[in-house]
## 1
Amino acid sequence: MSGEKLNADSDVRCKIAKEAATLLYFGAAKEYKQAKVKAAKTIGSNFLPSNLEVALELDKIADMLEGPARKERLIKMRKEALKIMKIFKDYCPILIGSVWRGNIRQGSDIDITLYHDTTDEIVDALKENGFKISKTERTTETKMGTPKSSFHIYVETAGKQTAELVVRNSEEAGSKRKCEIFGDEISGLNVKELERLLNENPAEKFLPV
C-alpha cells in the first residue's frame, strides 16, 4: 500500500473519529459503536476508528468547548469523590471512570467501585452521611463464562454532583478489568492515591497515549 493511500485512509479515520465524537458530545448518539457507524455513513466510508481514537477526539472537543471551567469541575468532582471514598475506606474504594481519567464532559458523574457483601450497610451509611439516593439496582454480567453480580447506588453529593457507587463482592477486591473504550487496564485511584493527586497535580489525566 502506497504512502499516499495510507495517509488518505488515516485522514478518513480521523474525520470519522471526530464526527463520532461530536455525535457523542451533543447526545446525537449514546454508544460508541452507534456513533462510529453513524459517522462513517455521514462521511461516506466503511472505515470504523477504534473507541480509543473517538475518545481522544471527544476529550479535545470537551476541552475546546468547556474551557478552563472543565478543569475546575474535574477538581471539584475528585474532591467530592474523596469524601465518599473516605466514608467507605474499609471497603477498598476505587475511583474509576471519567473523573479518574480526567476526561469529564458535561453530564459526567463520579464512578466509584466498593467491595462489600452487605449492600444494606452501604445504603444506610450514605443516608446517615446526608447523601440523597435517587435509585438502586442490581445487575448481572457474564465475564469469561462466569456471571458477576453488582449493586448500583445512584446518589447526589452535598456539592450537587451525581455519583454512581458500584458495590461488588468482597472476593473480587483487587481483581482487574479491561476498559472497553481505552483498551487498557482499569487501575483507578484508591484513597491514598487520590489524596496525593489532589495535593500534587489535581487535574492530571490518565489516558493511554
## 2
Amino acid sequence: MRRRILLAVLVLTTAGLLAWLFRQPLMTAWRWISDVEAVTAYIRAYGLWGPVVLSVLFFLQVFLAFIPGQALMIASGYLYGFLGGFLITWTSLVLSGQIAFWLVRRYGRPFAEKWIKPTMLDRWDKSAAGRGVGFYVITLVMPFFPNDAMCYVAGLSRLSSRQFLQANMLGRGIACLLTVIVGAFSAQIPVLLWVFAAGFVVLGAAGWWLMKKWA
C-alpha cells in the first residue's frame, strides 16, 4: 500500500512539474483548439487534405476529452458548407465512436479506464444498466452529458454492436445537424442562428435535468 501511495504521489508530482514547465505551450494549444477561427485557419492551410486533417481531429476528440468537438463541428460547417461539413463530421464521429465501442468490448474496463475517469465510468455504467438505444441517443445529443464517454459505457453494456450503431448514427446525426449548421450559415441567416441558439438553451436545460436524474 505504501509503495502504491508513493508511486501515485511520484506520478502526480512528475505530471504537475511537467505541466508547469510546459504551461506556455499547453495554454497555447488549449486556446487554439477552443478557437473556431484558429481551427478554421489551420485546416484551410492543408487545402485538399483539410477534410482528412479534420477527420483525424474528430477521431482524437473521442479519445482525448480536452479537445472540444463543438469548435471542430462549427469549423467543419464554415469550411465545407452544410452538406460537406455534416458528412465529414457525422461519418468521423460515428466511425470513431464505433471503434471506441469495439475496443472496450474487446479489451474491457481496463482499456476504458485509460481514457475515462473510473468514477465517471462507474457512475454512468450504473445509470445505463438495462437501458436501450433511446438512452444512448439522448446522451449522445444532449449538452452536459459526457457524449464521447458514452461510447465506452456502451461497450461495457449488453447493448449489441448493431444497436449501438443505430444510437450512434442517430445521436451523432442530430448533434452534428444542430452544430454544423451554425458554421455553415453563420454569415447568411442570422435569424436562424438565434433559433438554434434558443434550441441549444432548451437542450442544455433538458440535458442538465436528465443528467441529474440519471447520474
## 3
Amino acid sequence: MQSPHVILRWSTHLVGLLLVLLLAAMAFLMGCYEMQDNDIWWHLRGGEWILQNGRTPDLDPFSFGSADQRWIDLHWLFQVIMAAVHRAGGLAGVLLVSAAVAAAAFVTAVAARPAIAPLPAVVLALLLGLALAGFRFDPRPEMFTLLFLSGYLAVLAHFEARPRLVWLLPALQLLWVNMHGLFIFGPIVLAFWWLAWAARRAWGWLVPSERMPADRPGVIRNLAWASGAVLLCCLVNPYGLEGALFPLKLYPKVAQEGNPYKAYIEEFMSPRRYGRRWFLGVFYFLLLLVPVSFLLPAIWEAVRVPTKSGRQTTVGPERFPVAWLGALLALAILLLLQVLKLTWPDRTGIMVEFGEAMPLFLLGVAVAAAWFLRRSLAAALLCLAGGIALSAWSAWLDGYLGSDTPSEWILAVAGMTGAVTCGLVLRQTGNLFGMLLAGLFAYLGLQAVNSFGRFGLVAGVLLSANLGGWVGQLLKEWSAVGWRTGVAWACRLGMIVVLAGCVFGVASERYARRIGDPRHLRLRERPLTFAHEAARFAGQHGLPQRALVYDIAQSCVYVYHNAPDGKVFMDARLETPTLETFQRYTEIEKQLNKLGGRWSGLLDQLGDVVVMLSHDGNVQAEATLLSNPRWRCVYLDSLATVFVRRSEEERERRFPTFDPAARHFAAPLAPSRPEGTGAATEEAEAAYHVGVALGRPGVDIWEGHIPWLLLALDRAEQAVREEPESVAAWTTIGNCHWKLIPDRERAAPGPHQDWDPTVGMAWAQSTFCFRQALKHGPDDESVLQALFRSFGARRMADAQREVGARLLATANVTKEQAEAIRRLLDRVAPRIISPEGLDQDVSDIVMRLLQSGRPREATLLAEEVGPPGQGWGWPAADRLAGAWMHLGYPQKARVIWERAIGVPAEAVRLERLASTYWAECEHDKAVKLYQSSLAAGPRRPEVDWALAWLHTQRGEAIAAHQACRRLIGQNPTDPLGQEISQLERLLLHSGGVDIKHE
C-alpha cells in the first residue's frame, strides 16, 4: 500500500497535468475559429509553386508590378508544410496544424517557469497572455515564431541547471530562419541574456561585497558555442547572408512612423488607431501588470534582512504572506479599474470616473506604502519611485491608447522615474534579462497590433516567472505547513474550475460573443470574407492576365486562384514590392475613390488589366468605373465586382456587360453568389451603396442610380425571406425606398399635407421598414439615425423628438449632434392633451396638431378619443391615415380608411387600402386591391402609377409596362408624366419587354 505522501505527490502531478492540458485545450480551440487572415492564400500558392518547381522562388512569380524584384522567401518551409497539409486535409487541416502549434507554444511556455513557482499561478499568468495572443491565432508563420520564442525562453530559464539544453537553440533557429522573417528574435533574446550576464559580472567586479557566485562548469562554455551555432544557423537558408540580413531591410516598412505601409496595412498600425476594443484593454492591463511583477517582489526583497540561514522578512505585519498576496490582488484590481476606463461601454459611469482618478490614487497608495515600510529605506524608495513611475505610465497609456493626445511631460516623468525604479529593482533582484524582454516587446506592441501575440506570450512568461516565483517563495516561508498545503490545493482546484469555464466559454462560442468576435468555432474560412468566385471569374481565359485588385486582401485570393499565369499588380507580400510600386498602388486606389480623380492615366500605364474591387471600402471606385464609358462591369456578387476596358467584340460577347436592372427583372428571386446565409444581405448593401454613389453629377439617375437600387431592393427582400429578423436587410429595404424617389429636388411631403400616394408612398415604405429594423434591433444606431433624418425632412417634430431621445440614450452620437438633439428636445416639449373636457371638435384639434408638425400626438389623441359613430369623415380620415403612414404604421392607417365615412368613391378606398399593404411589403394583397380599384372605376392616375412601380419593384417588367402605358394614355401632368416615361424607358431597355409581342 502506498504511503499518503506518495499518493499526494502523484495527485499533485495529475492535477498539474490537467491544468496544462486545459490551458493547451483553450489555446487549441482559440485557433479553431473561422479563418479570416488573407495571407494564407499567397502562402498556399507559394508552397504549391515550390512543390511544383522543386526550388524556392528567386524573382517574384506572382505580380507584374514586381516581376523584376528578388523575392527573399524566408517563409518557404512554412508554405511547403501548409501546402502539403492543404492537399491532404484542406483548409480544416491547415487550421488544425496552426491550432496545434499555438497550443504547443503555450505548453512550452509553462516549462519556462521557475521550479518554485506554483503551477496555478503560472497557468493564470499565461492565461492573461493567451487572452491577448489568441485574437491573432490564424494560420500564419508567426504561429511558429510563438513556438520558437517560447522554446528559447524555456531553454534559457533552465539551461544553467542542465547546460546541454542550449543545444536545442541551434535546432530551433534552423527551423525558425526558414519559417518566418522574425527569426531575428532568436539572436536578440540570446544577446539580451549575454548582456544581463555581463552586467551581473560587472556589478560584482565594481562591488566586491556583492560578487556573484561562480557559474557551474560548462554553462557559459556550452552557451557560447551554442550562440555561435545559432548565428551560423541564421545563414542556413536558401539565400544565405542576404536572407539572414533581410529582416533589417523589412523593419522600417513595419515600424517606422510615417511610412506608407504602416499607414495602409491594418496590422502594422498603432493600437491607438483601433479605439475601444477588447484586446486593447487586455494589452493595456498587461502593460501595467508586467512592471508590477518586477516591482512588488523587489519591495519584498528590500524589507528582508540577512540571517544565518539566508534572508528573512522583518518582524511586523509585512512578514505575513497573506498581506503580500492581498497587496498584489488589490493592486491588480486597481489596475483593472484603470483599464475599464478605456474599454467600458458607457464612459459616463462611476467606474469610468473612478478610472480617471486612478493615477493619483496609485500615487497615494505608493506614498502610504512608503510610509508603512519606512524601516527599510530601499523598500520606501522603491515604493515612491515605482509608484510615481506606474502612475505616470498609466496616465500616459490612457491618453495614448484612448486616442487622445498623450502628454510628453508625463512620458518624461514616467521615463525618468522608471529608470530610477529599474535601477533599484535590479539592485534587489538582478533581473535585467526580463526587463530587456519586457521593454522590447512592449515597445513593439505599442508600434503595431501585429506584435500583440508575441507580447502576450512574453508577458505571460514574465508574469509566471516574476509573480509565480515570488508567490512560490512566499508560500515556502509560510510557517503553517497544514494551511499552506490546504491553500495550495484550493488554488489548484480553483484554477481547474476557472480553466474549465474558459474552455467551455471558447468551445460554446460565448467567449467570442462576449468580446464581439463575429466568427464561429468552425474549421473553415469565415463566410463572405474572401472573394473566391470573383477571383476565379477575373482569371478566366479571354480576360486580361494582369489584374489590379483592391483591397489588398483580395489580391491574395486572386494570387491563390490564378498565379503564376495571372499576375496581380501588387499583393500583400512585403518582401517584393518597392516603395515606388506600393505608392503607385495606393495612389491609384486613392484616385479611383476620389470624385474627379486622375485615375485614368494611371490605369493606362498598367496596360490591359482586369480590375477587381471588393465592395468593402471601394464603393466610390466602383461608381467611378461604372460611370466611365471606357470601362464596363462584367461581374458582380455579394463580395466584389470585376471590370474590363471596352474592347473587341469577341470579349464583349463572351463577357457581356453586367446590367443591374436586367438582373433584377430576369431573376429577382435567385439566390445571391456565393450561396449561403447572409450573401443576399451583403449584395443588397453593396448594390445600395453603389446606387447612392452613382447619384453623382453627370450620371443619369435612370441609368445608374435607380437600376442599382432596384437590384438592392430585390436582394434585400430575398435576405428578409431567408432571415425575417435581419436588421441589416430591413434597413437596406428602407434606405432603397427612400432613395428611389426620382425627383430629389421635390420638397418632402408630410402629414401636414393631404395624403398623396405618388409622393408619400416611398417615405411611408421606408419608415415602415425602419420600424421593422428597430423591432429586431431596438438600439441600432444606423436605423435611429435614418429615422431621425427622415422625420426631420418631413417636419415631423414630435416624432423626431421621440427618436432623438432614444439616440441620446442608446447610441453613440457626436457632440454636435447631441447638442442639436437637446435643442430639439427643449424646443418641442411634449404636449399632453387630456381627452376629458375637450370643448372643441376632436377632428379640428387633430388637424391643427398635424398642421403644427405633431403627427405623433395627433394620431395618439385620435386613437384614444375617436369620433362618435362609425368612423371619421373622409377629409379628416384621409389626413389622419396619411399621418399613420408617415409614422410607419400602415396597419393603423388601414383601420381608419376601412371605417371612414363619406368616401368619394369605393375605388379611392381600395387604392388607399392597397397602399397600406404595399407599405407593409405585402405585395400580392396590394396588387389585388389595386386591380380591384381599377375595376371599380373611374380610372385614377395614382392607381396605374402604383401598379407600374409595384410591378417594377417585384421584377415583373411586362405588367409594369402595361401600367405605364395606361398611365401615359391618361396624359398625366408633370412631374408624374415625366417620371413614368423614364420608367417605361428603363423597362424597355433592361426589362426585356417586347412591344410588338405585348
